[in-house]
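task queued by scheduler; priority normal; single chain, no ligands, no partner chains; default sampling; output format set to structure tokens
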Amino acid sequence: MSNNANTPVKKTVKKPAANNGAPNSGAKKQHRNERAHQLKIYAIGSVLILLAIVLLANILLDKVFGKSLTFDFSAGRSNVISDTSVKFLESLPQDTRIRIVGLFERPESVYDTEYQYIVPILDDYVKKSNGKVSIEYVDMQKNPGIIQSLDPSGSFDLSNKTGSYVVSYNGKIDIIDPISCYTIDTDLLNQYNKYVATGINTEYTFTNSMISLVKGFSNKAYFVTGLKENASTQLKRILNAMGTETADIDSTAGFKVPADCNLLILNGPNTDIPESMFVEIKEYIEKGGKVIAAVDYSSDNVGESYKNLNRLLNEMNINVEHCMVSENDPAYQLNTKINDSQADVAQQFSNFSSEKKMHITLARPLSASAVKNSNYTTYPVLTTSAKATKSIADENNQAKEIVTDQGIINVAMYSSYNVDDPGEIYVFGTVNFTSDVYYEQFTINDRNADFIRGCVRSMLKMSDENNVDIPVKKIDGNRLSQSKATTTVSTGVMIVFMIILPLILSSMAVVVYNKRKNL
């Protein structure tokens, strides 16, 4: 019997073939994995270092250059000051120091706030002033000492001006409410108490504030109040920009024209002046005083015939009639309305504005008084077409009844006292030259504003240097300037950032990879 079943079986084990000195494949794979891991760490580290460099460079550039590297491509150039403001700043001595203080913390984002069109342009003042203008933002609650610093006498009640700006120069200050940097839709404000900006007035407001503080006021105008009159904020801005300080004077029984009054203004009174005012203003004009008076014919005063005001004006050969001008010539009408039209500027006053027709609305006719006063010389200033008529209006300011035949009607007149230093008066049968309602819709760079400036310059013997006109800028939203953000520029930027830079970075990556892949 064979015992092969119990005999152990020998297994043959194959020896690995000799590799003639080649490295072990496992070691090679491990080496490549370690190299790939190192490359990955190197790549991530390089990206992080690059990001850190970019971030640090951005912070340093912002600290060193500030707003010097920002650009305004908006259509209305709403974030930069114009050449007019730049020339004014350049004209100032190098040691001039104008300080602008916002009485609040600077907002991190001004988008869609009342400061959206204020903060950037103030930065531009600083940028272009060569050290003459500074801007800072101070929270009065955290730094109450700012009030004493700006207003040591406490005359301006700055503690109640949070959110406003203070322009300071050599101890004199001017307070600017952000709302004054915009023109406002008056209809929405009156009907819904809603502020909707129609234009940007920031540069006009701040530049003229600086001019007033640096150069001082050379004249003073008083606005008569207490006659249910129109608001005069915009006209006051016009006068301030002409170096004329403004103040109010109440139409009380003891009314007196102040001794420092260079110009007296009756802006759209909706009720008659008192007897005492008639006497005082008459004497003021006879002593060389200057007056602007404006009325209209609206639902607010349709029942007012202005008996005392007419007594005053009759002394100067002018009479305000108790009816409304209706313009029947389509060439003169605006929006096909007979009570909203244009009027011709008389030749004698044509140098007041480059425009030869002015805008009149709800105008009262002006005529010569029944008895002529030889002490005064009187001229028409604005006249209608030869097709105009005089009408009685209803409660909606629409012509209800025609009371005259067609003919040329005066809607503004001028009269001067016949002496060496004459008293003068401009009388307007419309408030389109003086009221906020008009200027908040058409802005203080309108043709009517140019004309009223001409009237003031003529009476107060001003030169053009007293008048700094800066256009109200449109609110363009996100619309870009067609001259700066052109299709060519946009295409160029797209090519650089979408094609050229990616190609450069990709090429660099390929070069680096090829140089290191066999390491």
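post-processing summary
- The chain has three domains: 31-69, 79-217, 219-461.
- The chain has a mean pLDDT of 84.
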